[in-house]
Amino acid sequence: MSPDRPDAPDEWAGGGKSADSRGRLRVSEALAAAAREVTDPRRVPDALCTACVRLLPVSGASVSISGGRGIQMTWCASDRVAARLAELQYTMGDGPCHSALEQGAPVLAPDLTAGRDARRWPIFAHEAVGLGVSAVFSLPLGVSGAALGTLDLYCDRVGGLSEPDLRTALWVRDAVTYALMSTQPTHRGTEEATDEEVASWVEASEADHTEVYQAVGMVMVQLDADPEQALDRMRARAFVEGRTVSQVAREVLARRLRFEPEPGGDRRAGPQDDGRRDGEGRDGDRS
User: Fold this and answer.
1) From CA 229, how far away is CA 160, in angstroms rounded?
2) Residue 209: which region, alpha, beta or left (left: phi > 0; alpha: psi -120 to 50)?
3) For the chain, how long is the longest CA-to-CA vector?
4) What DSSP line would sit under the chain, residue for residue?
5) Which pairs with CB-CB distance under 8 Å and at least 24 residues apart come from 17-22?
6) Looking at the whole model, is its pTM more than 0.70?
7) How many CB atoms lie within 10 A of CB 113?
8) Would you say 257 and 230 are in contact if contact means Cβ atoms under 8 Å apart?
9) Roughly what angle, to the nearest 10 degrees, separates helices 245-253 and 207-223?
10) Per-residue pLDDT of the chain (287 residues; tens, 9 = 90+)
């Protein structure tokens, strides 16, 4: 399956003569070619992200999928910085991608080093600049107004997207949305794909997502808290230790890390709440 929609209108398929039609066709063909060049279906999402970077004047790209309750997973990333930036926004529960999901509209932050963008997400902006990121452009993915994730583009220099580049970014967003909603990866040749090959791209990336869900459930029991409170505590722990939420989730599932309510019922993160080893809690503590 290629990212271009087979039953799309003429404008998408190149039947029209407008500049927009040619632009859409160029984007569609570039992403389809990137997918066809990959022999391992599990690498197709990363190839699409890399193709996005070639189509736009940006330094890197990532796609994150929203799973509800504030839980997200990174579907693909063009490079390590893009992956870390996506995980940073998830860990902090803040940043352009969260604003794009909430608003259902593109969020453009051309200068995280100073001014309005730095003030809008002060902690995220500080951490992003520390990664070498100066600008972020987050575009919601989805159809009929329902955002299922975001395409996040970053630049290592300050500056916005020109109108033609933004238009191209939106076409890229549309193509990536279709690829994300499809369940069969691209494979070479005309032979039928094996059962293994037709496994969902998304399923291939869901391990971390599932781990976080499971860990949130355990922390809910430990704290007698709701899912949002449990996830907030895991995020706080991850941020303080310079780790990702996924890493904290694995520690919880392995029972190397547990959370305790603070005295007086205050459920905010505190040093006495975390880091207990299995069997090291007070008498009667749940595992």
Assistant:
1) 36
2) alpha
3) 75
4) --SS-TT--HHHHT-S-SHHHHHHHHHHHHHHHHHHT-SSGGGHHHHHHHHHHHHTT-SEEEEEEE-STT-EEEEEESSHHHHHHHHHHHHHT-SHHHHHHHHTS-EEES-SSSHHHHHHSHHHHHHHHHTT--EEEEEEEEETTEEEEEEEEEESS-----HHHHHHHHHHHHHHHHHHH------SSSSPPPTTTTS-HHHHT-HHHHHHHHHHHHHHHHHT--HHHHHHHHHHHHHHHT--HHHHHHHHHTTS----PPGGG--S--TTTS-PPTT-S-TT---
5) 20/167
6) no
7) 15
8) no
9) 60
10) 444 443 444 443 444 457 778 888 888 888 888 888 888 777 888 888 999 999 999 999 999 887 655 567 788 899 999 999 998 998 888 899 989 988 889 999 999 999 999 999 999 999 999 999 999 999 998 765 667 889 999 999 999 999 999 999 998 988 888 777 764 343 334 333 333 332 333 443 444 556 777 787 888 888 888 877 787 787 778 777 777 777 888 888 888 998 888 666 544 433 334 444 344 443 334 33
Give the pair of three-digit tokens for residue 172.
Answer: 């890229």
Provide the residue type at 43 as one letter: R
The token duo for 2 is 């290629």
